[in-house]
Amino acid sequence: xxxxxxxxxxxxxxxxxxxxxxxxxxxxxxxxxxxxxxxxxxxxxxxxxxxxxxxxxxxxxxxxxxxxxxxxxxxxxxxxxxxxxxxxxxxxxxxxxxxxxxxxxxxxxxxxxxxxxxxxxxxxxxxxx
Length: 129
Ligand code: HEM
Prior knowledge:
- This is Cytochrome b5 heme-binding domain-containing protein.
- GO terms for molecular function: heme binding; metal ion binding.
- It is found in: Membrane.
- The chain is built from seven helices and six strands; from the N terminus they run ααβαβββαβααβα.
- The protein has helices at residues 2-10, 20-24, 31-35, 65-70, 77-83, 87-93, 107-123, and strands at residues 28-29, 38-39, 42-47, 50-53, 74-75, 97-101.
- Strands 1, 2, 3, 4, 5 and 6 form a six-stranded mixed sheet that branches.
- By secondary structure, it is α/β, with parallel strands linked by helices.
- Helix content is 43%, strand content 16%.
- A hairpin with a 2-residue loop joins β2 (38-39) and β3.
- The structure holds protoporphyrin IX containing FE.
């Protein structure tokens, strides 16, 4: 338990095994599971289908904690990109990484589902969309 926390702190960049923890056991979270982490004492964000626990970063954020809390428990990709964050900011993200959005819950998958529904509806008239 303590080891894991240490690994996370130490895995800030170079050195052997720095990518190990991220690659070894990727955790997948559903949007439902992510949504509950929406308070200042427990804050998760989704950026590009990756999940970040940014609780400890709130006070450090140069853009303030307010904007982060507005997106807490949800997808902040658009706002993150709108700001045009620096490479430094993108690298900072890595240390807060906790997992990935469940494949079923990704936007791409969703639009594929929507497309299937439209096709099905077209093929079978009267089917509720
Ligand atoms: C965990 C994810 C985030 C990290 C690591 C992060 C990091 C940073 C960093 C390092 C800066 C300084 C400028 C730069 O290097 O680009 C910054 C600025 C800023 N961020 Fe974020 N940011 C994150 C998420 C967000 C989100 C989701 C929003 C908007 C909803 C946001 C809004 C801003 C704004 C408005 C500034 C500009 C502050 C200023 O220059 O006055 N950030 N952020």
